[in-house]
Amino acid sequence: MIDHLVYKNRRYHHFWLRDNCQCEQCRHTSGQRLHETWQLNFAVAIEQINATPLGLEILWSGDDRHRSFFSKQFLAQHCYDEESTTAQQEADSRQLWGTALTDNIPCFDYLKVISDDEEKRQWLNSVITYGLAKLINVPIEPGTILKVVGQFGYVRTTNYGDLFEVLSVKKAVNLAYTPIPLSLHTDNPYRNPVPTLQLLHCLVKADSGGVTALADGFYAAEILRRDYAEAFKLLASEKVDFKFASENAILQHKGCMIEVDPGGQVTAIRINNRSVAAFDLPFAKMLPYYRAYRQFMSILQGDDCKVTLTLAAGELILFDNQRVLHGREVQAIGARHLQGCYADRDGLRSTAALLNALLD
User: Closest Cα partner for 306 from 220, 235, 230, 240?
Assistant: First the structure.
């Protein structure tokens, strides 16, 4: 029994087509499905098919003799045939980067971003593509960082509050609140889910030091996979604990330092030397894991991966906290004051998609 049709050299299962009928009986005006997929006839068959310049008209067999129409655009967009070339057209748009990005970090003017949709679109798409972007001419009013988040989404409130002050304080609950250097890391690996975006806004620049280091964890992970395949497999398969404890929070999560999807693509990095707990791994894997961890960190901290910059007052960086690692290279001297906050990637991607649809 034939269970699929071929259209423009691409295969589509009959059941998939019936389930994705776009007619008003099957789809609400919101785009949401009205029928229950599990209640459809799994052996549904086509009684009649008509190819038009606009797409496919299908009459289904059965008591209701349901009619469906699929546009050429819909079929091309949703082609899932592994033997087609569509997968290439849907390749990940992200651009990996190393030290060469030092003088080419995507940079935008805050005043233009808040007044020009095209400028905002480019800013958000840069974060999607590169994992980070910088804003200049951001007012140095405390709390402005929350208004920046409001341009694309919502603040992710944590035990640190809506925003947090990056200042040197006595009895700091986190090394971020000291002037000492910090190795490259992602924030909050002890949470599930991890905040996927982070913002840092400079209100007062340090008299000296306080240099910010950045690295593309996805780029470093691909170098590790290429040069040390077994090390990559260990970090992508063995989970370790991350912990944080203070007077108002006890947080713990177990995860891989490199997360990959079923296709092997790197989807997240989880690195934080300060909050990773004692490794609890099988005896035979303990030293190989340490070796893999050292190799990955050496790549991240190496000359090929790391970008450094010193934020001036009124500058802000927005970056993907599951991709871009950040740190402090040199001890900050003087009254350095940054404000930080967290947000989530889905809000940024949603706003970018709306702007892309509006402006394309």
Answer: 220
User: What percent of the chain lies above the pLDDT cut of 90?
Assistant: 82
- Report phi then psi at 291, rounded to 5: -65, -40
Q: Which long-range contacts (CB under 8 A, 24 or more apart) does 52-60 make?
A: 56/7, 58/17, 60/18
Other beta carbons less than 10 A from residue 158's beta carbon: 17
CA distance 189 to 162: 18
Backbone φ/ψ region at 89: left (φ over 0), alpha (ψ -120 to 50), beta: alpha
> In 3D, which of 64, 62, 46, 59 has the Cα closest to residue 6?
46
Please give the single-letter amino acid code of residue 266. V
- 156 is written with which tokens? 């992710």
Query: Can you give the residue ranges of every domain in the chain?
Result: 4-89, 99-359
Please indicate whether the domains covering 4-89 and 99-359 agree at the CATH topology level: no
- Of 66, 340, 78, 310, give the one whose Cα is nearest residue 210: 310
Give CA–CA dist 10/20, Å, rounded. Answer: 16
Q: What is the pLDDT of residues 186-196, one digit of tens each?
A: 999 999 999 99
Question: Would you state the structure tokens that stand for residue 334, as one six-digit string?
Answer: 């003087």
Residue 61 has pLDDT above 80, yes or no: yes
Q: Encoding tokens for residue 188?
A: 């909050």
Backbone angles phi, psi at 210, to 5 degrees: 70, 25
DSSP assignment of 62-131 equals SSS--EEEEEHHHHHHT---TTSSHHHHT--------GGGGG---EEEHHHHTT-HHHHHHHHHHHHHHS
| 3-class SS of residue 232 | helix
Q: Give domain 99-359's CATH superfamily.
A: Clavaminate synthase-like (3.60.130.10)
Q: CATH assignment of 4-89?
A: 3.30.2020.30
